[in-house]
Amino acid sequence: MNNWHPFSQAALPVSRWRNGGGETREIISWPQGTAEFDWRASIATIAADGPFSAFPGIDRSITLLSGEGVHLSDGGQLSHRLSTVGAPFAFSGDLSLSAHLLGGMTMDFNLMTRRHVCAPRVVVLRESGTVTAEKGGVLYAIEGEWQLPDGTRFGKGDGFWWSTSDSQAHAQWAISSCAQTHTGQGLLLWAAVTD
């Protein structure tokens, strides 16, 4: 597990949107140090209604982390209420979407993958489980406290990203839920990049 890189949502660098409607905290853009990513994971805060940038050739997955959510639409082909914390929604980055807040500000996890290179797979665990390394990905604690196989613990707002070689892609890790929350369960986001 030496290729696991810890992060805290609060410590991620902030990039404010040009339209003033929110901000993005990038977790990882892979491969690092290149202008064009194969996959990119980030946490966004949406503070106002407005457009979502189109990313031609990119597949996207968005998961509500906190807040009442947003309504995503493109005026015809797509209309989706993202209002359940921990429920991923996949869509094409080719679409030019508008986001309309359902209440106040929201925070969302975003995974973008370059089509024909890799694909996104996002699952939310509510109890202990096993995850597969795939090509890379992110673990993020939405609620509760969690433990990695090596005993490392992490809680709400913290996580890890990783990348793997082809020989490690089928490695499996048992992730344990350590502590109950006030709602009685934890929520752990596992976002993997697959072939």
Automatic annotation (TrEMBL):
Pfam families assigned: HutD
InterPro entries assigned: RmlC-like_jellyroll, RmlC_Cupin_sf, Uncharacterised_HutD/Ves
PANTHER family membership: PROTEIN VES
Protein name: HutD family protein
